[in-house]
Amino acid sequence: MSRIIAVANQKGGVGKTTTALNLAAALAILGQEVLLVDVDPQANASSGLGLRGVSPNLYDILLNGIFPEKALYKTDYPKLEVLPSTIDLIGCEVELAAAQGRERLLVQVIGNLAERYRYIIIDCPPSLGILTLNALVTAQGVLIPLQCEYYALEGLSLLINTVRKVKKAFNPRLYLYGILLTMYDGRNKLTRQVEAEVRKHFGRAVFETVIPRNVRLSEAPSHGKPIFAYDPSSRGARAYMTLAQEILKREAKL
Amino acid sequence: MSRIIAVANQKGGVGKTTTALNLAAALAILGQEVLLVDVDPQANASSGLGLRGVSPNLYDILLNGIFPEKALYKTDYPKLEVLPSTIDLIGCEVELAAAQGRERLLVQVIGNLAERYRYIIIDCPPSLGILTLNALVTAQGVLIPLQCEYYALEGLSLLINTVRKVKKAFNPRLYLYGILLTMYDGRNKLTRQVEAEVRKHFGRAVFETVIPRNVRLSEAPSHGKPIFAYDPSSRGARAYMTLAQEILKREAKL
Ligand SMILES: Nc1ncnc2c1ncn2[C@@H]1O[C@H](COP(=O)(O)OP(=O)(O)OP(=O)(O)O)[C@@H](O)[C@H]1O
Ligand SMILES: Nc1ncnc2c1ncn2[C@@H]1O[C@H](COP(=O)(O)OP(=O)(O)OP(=O)(O)O)[C@@H](O)[C@H]1O
Ligand SMILES: [Mg+2]
Ligand SMILES: [Mg+2]
Q1: Tell me, what DSSP letter sits at residue A84?
Q2: Closest chain B C-alpha to A93 CA, distance in angstroms
Q3: Do B218 and A149 touch (CB under 8 A)?
């Protein structure tokens, strides 16, 4: 039975792609079969693994009816595969806005693939439109990367309310998989204030692991590699590996 | 004749709101009548000026037909007014998707207000949906904040192509007002690489002023104030004031 996790937050630039990509790679390194699904038309998760502009892709599955198996790509990690996105998905928001069952398109795609993978991780765009809705309907859990800044904290209640609405209307099994503090700088007063506030309100739903601000994480995508291949000894690599281990430990206890 | 500038970039977290808000305040301090229009449902520009959750707002104008004049709010700066946004705008993307002339809703709102202001600055959400489309149809110029990172650079050609399409289909006067390098850290190799690439391709369309990474800029919104009221001597305040002066100098030459 695979774990389907949507990495979502409508606030932009909080580390969704960096988290989805590097967590997927870390879990694969730890021996789990992982599929990374990119539903963001920016296709950053795809290009961060060297799969920019490839075809077939998710658009071809959703709109041209090709089989999902045809759009699975291998990576340098034997246990990590990718279902890439494309800019063409931008049209989806408008093309699908009025379609029947427009929120259940992705769940049909992923449904057939679920048995093959232990984890399916979905990278979402910075909005609460049709594409993110599809990811929330498909997922069991939502992992929320939270930048330790004021605007990011302000947007959290909107996101939590949206997850509740999707749970009630479309997907009763959906739950908060966890909140991950990203771009964390312990010397910064604002960071510590945001952390204190979030841990007070959400308690154990906040991962113990925090992801520090680390320039190596922002350099890795230009080489089309996860942080573990670009700079395995960096603080960013260690943090995402610790997160993967924390996740496996939590899962073992469930 | 007012200058209408859309601050847009579908890449998230690149400094759109921080630029729209602080540039608007800087121009007002330099004596220009300025209106800041927030079309992002996150309403960060509104809350960054202490106007979180106020009503009436842009949603009431677009969907409930109230007069735009009723949703203009004063700020601590006599020459800066705000037309605030609200979370309710999220429904717009779906509610308006099929409406006739859905791309021209904002231009009708702003049309009546244009004579009152020398500058109208529009903050956009991190997407290329209906709301950003409305801003691009309304604006004469697009100001593109560009974070000096790989994913942000990757998204630039998509944005430039979208601006071209909107110019051709809806708004012939639309042009690239300028590209602004944000969160700039001169010690960082990636920053310098992105700068070199962008200045090579876009030349004088790139502002000489760059906005440094400055933690005071991220602290100011939690006080509901522009950087000039929160910490006028900060590097962030000086950079946005220099940008405003560069803009006025360029305009004088036109
Ligand atoms: N911990 C970190 N330290 C330093 N840089 C980071 C870190 N995490 C992400 N970045 C960089 O910050 C930028 C934003 O991160 P990312 O693109 O992953 O966010 P996102 O939430 O996916 O953005 P979007 O909302 O556009 O999808 C990227 O350039 C990325 O390389
Ligand atoms: N030059 C800067 N130095 C330091 N922090 C900054 C700077 N500019 C913006 N920030 C902070 O970085 C975060 C992202 O900036 P901002 O919200 O303005 O980007 P945006 O493009 O409007 O995001 P979105 O895509 O969600 O609308 C915010 O928390 C902001 O306070
Ligand atoms: Mg992303
Ligand atoms: Mg913004």
Answers
A1: -
A2: 8
A3: yes
A61-70 residue pLDDT tens: 998 889 999 9
List pLDDT tens digits, range A236-248. Answer: 999 999 999 999 9
Q: Bigger pLDDT: B72 or A1?
A: B72
Q: Phi and psi for A124 in degrees, rounded to 5?
A: -110, 155
**What backbone torsions phi and psi does residue B116 show, to the nearest 5 degrees?**
-80, -20
CA distances in angstroms from A238 to A145, A146, B200, listed in the order given: 17, 19, 36
Mean pLDDT of B225-229: 98
A-chain CB neighbours of B52 within 8 Å are 154
Q: Which candidate from B52, B90, B130 shows the least CB-CB separation from A128? A: B90
Residues A61, A68: Cα–Cα separation, whole Å: 6
Mutate to test the interface with A, among B146, B149, B151 (most CBs of A within 10 A): B151
Asked if A73 and A54 touch (Cβ cutoff 8 Å), the reply is yes
Residue found by looking up tokens 């692991």 in the block: A209
Mean pLDDT computed over every residue of chain A = 95
Cα of A86 to nearest chain B Cα, Å: 11
pLDDT of B22 reads 98
Structure tokens of B251? 């305009």
Q: What is the 3-state secondary structure (H, E, C) of chain B?
A: CCEEEEECCCCCCCCHHHHHHHHHHHHHHCCCCEEEEECCCCCHHHHCCCCCCCCCCHHHHHHHCCCHHHHCEECCCCCEEEECCCHHHHHHHHHCCCCCCHHHHHHHHHHCCHHHCCEEEEECCCCCCHHHHHHHHHCCEEEEEEECCHHHHHCHHHHHHHHHHHHHHCCCCCEEEEEEEECECCCCHHHHHHHHHHHHHHHHHECCCCCECCHHHHHHHHHCCCHHHHCCCCHHHHHHHHHHHHHHHHHHHC
Residue A100 has pLDDT above 90, yes or no: no
Question: Residues whose CB is under 5 A from ligand 3 (ion)?
Answer: A 16-17, 44
Q: Which residues contact A254 (CB under 8 A, 6 or more apart)?
A: none
| Cα angle for residues B122, B123, B129 (degrees, 5° grid) | 100
Higher-pLDDT residue of A97, A7: A7
Instruction: With cut-offs at 50, 70 and 90, classify the pLDDT of residue A92.
Output: confident
What confidence category does residue B92 fall into, taking pLDDT thresholds of 50, 70 and 90?
confident
Q: pLDDT of B123-175, one tens digit each?
A: 999 999 999 999 999 999 999 999 999 999 999 999 999 999 999 999 999 99
Best to test chain A binding among B52, B222, B231 (most A CBs inside 10 Å): B222
Residues of chain A found within 8 Å of residue B128, distances taken between Cβ atoms:
90
Please choose, from the candidates B5, B31, B6, B20, the residue with its C-alpha nearest in 3D space to the C-alpha of residue B211. Answer: B20
